[in-house]
Q: What sequence folds into this?
């Protein structure tokens, strides 16, 4: 089966997988590709990894368009994604309404599962939050860092720690079995990121890539995007 190839931030994986059958029924094409830290995905596109479309942060996609790697006329916003807290489904949910609350939640965890703190959107933000809270050094030995949020959440689900917690994008939390969305980050520590899709300038199947973007962003798929963790 012919496929449309994607390079995407992990935030969009659940939504893309959920629409794959509808896309196949509409076009006859399958969906294949890689999902991971947005910086890594952008570098793969720069290194000429075959891709028909990319789904990355709005700012990063704009840079790729400037670099003539994405067609400016074929870009559309998918939706905003919140960086949030996660716990194992069997554990009590935590609440962090203030920075002080969040500081105590993180101090009380014996393992903190996060995505790449240098190349991923959520991981970079976690590192900034730990610095802001003044506990980066204190919790450094408890950080469990993985290449992307989806992997971090799978590892959290399987964790043998007594009081583990995770922090990544809400879409990755919702898409992971055994994990529960525990709550938002408090004011001053919050992050909401717009994810945007675009057809690459080297696309082998540009029409089908555009069709997939239309499916992902269509008004009739708003409820499905919300279930996956995207907001307007």
A:
């Amino acid at each position: 089966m012919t496929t449309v190839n994607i390079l995407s931030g992990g935030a969009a994986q659940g939504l893309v997988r959920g629409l794959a059958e509808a896309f196949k029924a509409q076009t006859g094409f399958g969906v294949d590709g890689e999902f991971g830290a947005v910086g890594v995905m952008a570098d793969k596109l720069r290194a000429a990894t075959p891709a028909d479309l990319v789904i990355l942060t709005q700012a990063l996609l704009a840079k790729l368009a400037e670099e003539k790697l994405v067609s400016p006329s074929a870009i559309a916003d998918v939706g905003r994604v919140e960086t949030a807290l996660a716990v194992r489904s069997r554990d009590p949910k935590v609440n962090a309404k203030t920075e002080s609350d969040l500081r105590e939640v993180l101090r009380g965890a014996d393992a903190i599962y996060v995505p790449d703190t240098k190349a991923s959107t959520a991981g970079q933000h976690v590192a900034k939050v730990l610095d802001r809270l003044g506990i980066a050094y204190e919790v450094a030995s408890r950080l469990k860092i993985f290449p992307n949020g989806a992997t971090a959440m799978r590892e959290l689900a399987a964790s043998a720690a007594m009081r583990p917690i995770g922090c990544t994008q809400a879409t990755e939390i919702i898409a992971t079995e055994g994990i529960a969305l525990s709550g938002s980050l408090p004011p001053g520590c919050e992050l909401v990121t717009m994810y945007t899709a675009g057809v690459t300038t080297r696309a082998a199947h540009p029409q089908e890539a555009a069709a997939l973007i239309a499916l992902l962003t269509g008004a009739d798929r708003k409820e499905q995007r919300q279930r996956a963790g995207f907001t307007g």
Observations:
- The chain has a mean pLDDT of 95.
